[in-house]
Design a protein that fits this description.
Layout lengths: L7 H7 L5 E5 L2 E5 L1 H4 L4 H8 L3 H5 L1 E3 L5 H13 L28 H17 L3 H17 L3 H14 L3 H13 L1 H4 L3 H66 L14 E8 L2 E8 L7
Parallel strand pairs: 1-3
Antiparallel strand pairs: 1-2, 4-5
């Protein structure tokens, strides 16, 4: 949702003019219905219904960590997430959510972070946040691939998120790195022994098919070279015949000064059968033109 030139990050950071609270494990996030409810049909229904939340304006979030709620709130106000917003709570600053240093976030932690954000986006039906978290997850996989970290994130995704599109992203990344993953017992535990056997045989078949494709490509290149050579021969033959015809049109007498007969000729064929060479000869003195 676009709010034009307004700096909503400052508003959520201060909690000014808030008319709604998200509470998670003692952490309060003072937010605004116009921002939150227009992007989450689930939260909108809760705050507008006949439940306690509609009277108090307070939504209790029990299934997620405060850091994940923080990233969701950050997205709702800025369209992105990456830092952590301090919740508005009576707790001391030592109890607030701290933003970890960038180099403190492991590959596993980075992937899990995006999985957790995807899970809360799926839970509250925030479609654009689901899309963003999937994209960030895929980028994290490609930028810092680590098989064990990927497996940890996969477990988290299967346990936490019902987003089928995220599962598809995970399956795609797994397929790209299937050789590595098949060496991890944990991966076999997820897909089962039978699934592991199927994948191993699929890989073997793919290798055989790949060899066949390479061989076909080589054969095709050879045939293409043969075709190019044949086309070149045809061009030379046509050019040769063209020169003979031009000579027949232009020549009136034999070019042999001792003959000088009115030009009558025949065509002599020489060379190889696959590339003949045609020559004009005078019918009287047999000299070659």
């Amino acid at each position: 949702m676009s709010f034009g030139h307004l700096d909503l990050s400052r508003v959520v950071g201060s909690g000014e003019y808030s008319d709604m609270k998200l509470v998670c494990q003692g952490c309060e996030f003072k937010v605004h219905k116009v921002v939150v409810c227009t992007q989450s049909p689930v939260l909108a229904k809760a705050i507008q219904g006949v439940f306690q939340e509609s009277r108090t304006g307070i939504i209790n979030i029990e299934n997620f960590e405060p850091s994940t709620v923080s990233r969701m709130v950050e997205f709702l106000y800025t369209g992105d997430y990456g830092g952590l917003l301090f919740p508005h709570t009576e707790a001391s600053r030592s109890d607030e959510i701290k933003k970890p240093a960038l180099n403190d976030i492991t590959a596993s932690g980075m992937m899990l972070q995006h999985v957790q954000v995807n899970a809360i986006a799926d839970y509250y039906n925030i479609e654009r946040l689901s899309e963003l978290s999937r994209s960030k997850f895929q980028q994290a996989c490609q930028a810092t691939w680590d098989a064990q970290s990927f497996m940890d994130a996969t477990n988290g995704a299967l346990d936490l998120s019902g987003d089928g599109a995220l599962h598809e992203v995970i399956a795609t990344e797994a397929a790209k790195n299937i050789h590595t993953l098949l060496e991890i017992d944990h991966f076999a535990g997820i897909i089962g022994d039978f699934g592991t056997r199927v994948l191993r045989n699929c890989i073997k078949k793919a290798e055989v098919d790949r060899y066949k494709v390479i061989q076909l490509q080589l054969d095709l290149e050879q045939e293409h070279s043969k075709l190019q050579a044949a086309e070149a021969r045809v061009d030379r033959i046509i050019e040769n015949i063209g020169r003979c015809l031009q000579t027949m049109r232009e020549r009136g007498f034999c070019r042999n000064h001792s003959c000088m007969a009115e030009y009558q000729c025949y065509i002599e064929r020489r060379g190889q059968s696959f590339e003949p060479v045609y020559t004009l000869r005078c019918a009287k003195c047999k000299c070659r033109d």
